[in-house]
Amino acid sequence: MSRIESLLRAMTLEEKLGQLNLVTAGQAATGPIVPGETTQDIRAGQVGGVFNLWGRDVVARTQRLAVEETRLGVPLIFGLDILHGYRTIFPVPLAEVGAFDPLLWERTACASALEATCEGIHLTFAPMLDVSRDPRWGRIAEGPGEDPFVGSKFAQAKIRGFQGERLSDRGVLAATAKHFCAGGAATAGRDYAAVDVSERMLHEVYLPPFRAAVEAGCAAIMSAFNNVNGVPMTSHGKLLNGYLRRKLDFDGVIMSDYTAVTELVEHGVAADLVEAAALALTAGVDMDMVSGAYLRCLPEALARGLVAEADIDAAVARVLRLKERLRLFDDPYRFAAPAEGVQEAHRQLALDAARRAITLLSNRGILPLAADVRRIAVIGPLADARADMLGPWSAAGAAENCATIPEGLKAALPACDLIHCTGVSIEGDDERGIELACTLARSADVVVLCLGESAGMSGEAACRATPGLPGKQRQLAESIMATGAPAVALLSCGRPLTAPWLFEQAQAVLATWFLGDMAGHAIADVLTGLFNPCARLAVTWPRDVGQVPIFYASRSTGRPPDANNFYSSKYLDCPVEPQFPFGHGLSFARVTLTNLRINRLEFTLGDEVEARVDARNESEVATEETIFLFLHDVTARVARPLMELKAWAKVALAPGKSKTVAFTLTTESFSFPGDDMEPMFEPGAFDILVGLSADRKNLLTASLRMIST
Ligand code: BGC
């Protein structure tokens, strides 16, 4: 008999339910204290996992309670949200995604896993895979942006990074793909709000990253808070049991989000907690995070006949299997040993990741800064920010490890005279500091305007109806620019910020997002030209919140936007084009693409299509370019998006040099979900579009046909 079978036989109902109970220890907010009642609950075998608790001593002490003081000695699993670093903080996911570099995504996850496992963590509530096309939604910062293909690649890389080769190895974490699913489509961009999306949108946009996560072997999945088409995800049997377990064969653990089982009552699908617990369990949720509803109410649900003991056993078996895969029964403490030099290596990685995440949005030639710049005024509410450089979900990170912008500039330009002031605060109405800020600006060769959001303005429950620059930042920026001082604006943010006026007036604008520990140094390296920026937008940048949701993969209409046709799909008061398209991002080089060619004009199922394009660096600066390949299925029974990303390539180009970049597409790339949502192939015309962003005006096109066999 296997260990799991014999444990299941030995367990009382209460002990089984204990395994399904995931509790928080509150360290994230209050310090390393396991509340008294949790200690009692663990001793009583009523807890299966604990999160928000880290550090060798406290984790070991808590684990000892389970291993040595419970009847069956089943170890606890320790979890934590590690969205972009554990001790070393890397850029927030939306920024890191902009590097379009799966190896980098994997390396930062791998580094975080090593740091976290040294301090007792076994499982992380990451990666966050919610595709989102709405910058009002604060959680857009935590995920892969607007595109399902990018989201899928991100999922695979992060899971490889967290989980390594085998979960049984020390130094790796079990990953939890979250939040399943479609939370990024929350009505009006408001967290926890209802989601109403078609079956087609689910299968084309919101499910693919989760499918990729399952295929990559992710250990766990967290169901989302939101409902999908009226059914809360915590009780969505069709998507949890149906899609994940039966269709994708996912045999890992499914857990609820924080108190989400209880919330089924508020959602309006359960009359009481007993029904809520039964609904979640029978839909496929194995672990109940924080509600305590399984523990308290499943005995009653059994008595009412709402669940069967076999449902409980199946869930417990999955939790025990995860513990077994992590080798917790043999090695319940499982601490990885910190190796010499790791911390410094992780700081270097954080610098690399931060530089690669900076998106140069506009540049009128002011960047890189001229060598003769002698005096720089660093002005704005984020001019000296430290904690805000980390962004939301900074796990065990610490503000004191973070380099501010002036610190970075000072280190990069020791001979330069640096002055700084905030002028205004991030939010609030006080404009009294603007005058002094203007005086400083007038005395400087160049102004670095540090604008944006606080870390708390992105992430969970951090939605904004008007995602522009808050407070009096516009007044500050316009007053500074009116002095005539050349100004470079940096946007610290977790989302695209609508500020068309800034892009018109500033000499250069960079999205510096929340870059983590090495923010100041990475920014300085880009401003001085030591590092040539290479990030691209993983999300379309709108001009106005009225354009939201806005994304490149839209479908045509019968009346596409046409400046010469009044009765076409436009706004009266705003262009239809975004401020910057998906994939936009400048460098200090200039690269041209020519000569797109494909290896066949006709293809059939099973053929590979190869596209090649020549990339030439026309400048004097070495550069690293990202080249995107989109597909358009010109005519199909179901209208296809005007462009769908199917591949990208990164290419390093020395000054004046050219390279040929090749892409290979399998026929799968040419399929789309049919009426039954299964991939279907429809013969006919396709366009392959290649370019440096999703800007349709600047794409090379090649056409080919799928013919039937
Ligand atoms: C969030 C999850 C997170 C969980 C545990 C919830 O409020 O939605 O993303 O993993 O808390 O911290």
**Cα gyration radius (Å):** 26 Å
Distance between the first and last residues' Cα: 52 Å
- For the report, how would you describe the main beta sheet? 8 strands, parallel
Mean pLDDT reading: 96
The ligands bound in this entry are:
beta-D-glucopyranose
Q: What's the helical proportion of residues? A: 25-40%
Low-confidence stretches: 29-34
Number of strands: 26
* Spatial order of strands in the largest sheet: 9-6-5-4-3-2-1-10
* Amount of beta strand: 15-25%
Tally of separate helices: 21
Based on secondary structure, the structural category is alpha/beta
**Structural shape:** globular
Report on the structure:
The protein is an alpha/beta fold and 709 residues long. Helices cover 30% and strands 19% of the residues. It is built from 21 helices and 26 strands. The strands form six sheets. The protein has an eight-stranded parallel β-sheet with strand order 9-6-5-4-3-2-1-10. A six-stranded mixed β-sheet has the order 11-16-15-14-12-13, sandwiched between helices. β7 (227-228) and β8 form a beta hairpin. α2 crosses α14 (293-304) and α18 runs parallel beside α19. The longest helix has 17 residues, at 102-118. The protein starts with a helix and ends with a strand. The model is unreliable at 29-34 (pLDDT under 50). Residues 81, 125, 178, 257-258, 460 line the site of beta-D-glucopyranose. The site of beta-D-glucopyranose (BGC) has 6 residues, from loops.
Descriptors:
709 residues; alpha/beta; 8-stranded parallel β-sheet; 6-stranded mixed β-sheet; 26 strands; globular; binds beta-D-glucopyranose
